[in-house]
Amino acid sequence: MLTAGVDLAADPAGTAAACLEWSGAGAILRELILPADDEAIADLIVAAGKTGIDCPLGWPDAFVTFVNAHHTGVAPVPADVPAREWRRRLAWRHTDEVTRAATGLVPLSVSADRIGHTAMRCAAIQTVLAQRGHPVDRSGAGAVVEVYPAASLKLWGLPWRGYKTGKNVAALGAVVDGLLEAAPWLDLGVHEDRCRRSDHALDAVIAALTARAAALGRVTRADDLVLARVEGWIALPTQPLGSHG
């Protein structure tokens, strides 16, 4: 079985994609693509059994309704709800709030943060996949699942912060060390050095590992399937990393 992971950015230059090959002995990192363009990502998703994408797969349902109403006339502003509260409903999806409650981490707002640019690219990739006959189920039930590498690392008991950007190579190496200690069955092969130098590469690997957990049914499931198929659903690991080999 193959699982893939994509650390998506608005542009290919900051995007990494990883492919893990699984056997009875564990997993080996067979492919690491950086930079990764839309076609390469689509090809990888089609080839893999399950792919984890580190990017919101959709927008808050309330936000879409609000923007559509504003576009055609007057946006609905509730008179009996504090402004900060109703704006929060527009900024974060249901899955973001569930993730916040479960992990203490606050996902970036797809409607109010710069990750919205990345989500636009992700939407285009979903269109490419649909045109190829592989439509995406945003609840994670199909070949694609939304993941959050920092949350996966935290839930696995591994270092999960302070390793981003090229200035934090030591912290990045510590995450890799912890990962390999927790999962001795994981072989990064010829790509290990790159994972120690690029947080994008490492996050792609974490996304692929979370995709494996999803394929085995060892992640949280959407508690509102109808909404998750519109907004997306972040799959959070429910078992230790060592159980996914």
Please characterize this protein's 3D structure.
The protein is an alpha/beta fold and 245 residues long. The chain has one domain: 2-Layer Sandwich (Nucleotidyltransferase, domain 5). The protein is built from ten helices and six strands. It has a six-stranded mixed sheet with strand order 5-4-1-2-3-6. Helix 1 packs across helix 5 (115-131) and helix 6 (149-155) packs across helix 9. It starts with a strand and ends in a 14-residue tail after the last helix. The mean pLDDT is 94.
Any chance you could write out the topology, listing elements then pairs?
Elements (H helix, E strand, L loop, with lengths): L1 E6 L8 E8 L2 E8 L4 H10 L2 E4 L7 H12 L10 H9 L2 H10 L11 H17 L12 E3 L2 H7 L13 H14 L3 E2 L4 H6 L1 H17 L9 H7 L14
Parallel strand pairs: 1-4, 3-6, 4-5
Antiparallel strand pairs: 1-2, 2-3
Helix pairs in contact: 1-5, 6-9
Order of helices and strands: EEEHEHHHHEHHEHHH
What percentage of the residues does DSSP assign to strands (E)? 5-15%
CATH superfamily label: Ribonuclease H-like superfamily/Ribonuclease H
Kindly state the number of beta strands: 6
Q: Concise description?
A:
β1 (2-7) and β2 form a beta hairpin.
What key phrases describe this protein's structure?
DUF429 domain-containing protein; 245 residues; 13% strand; alpha/beta; globular; 6-stranded mixed sheet
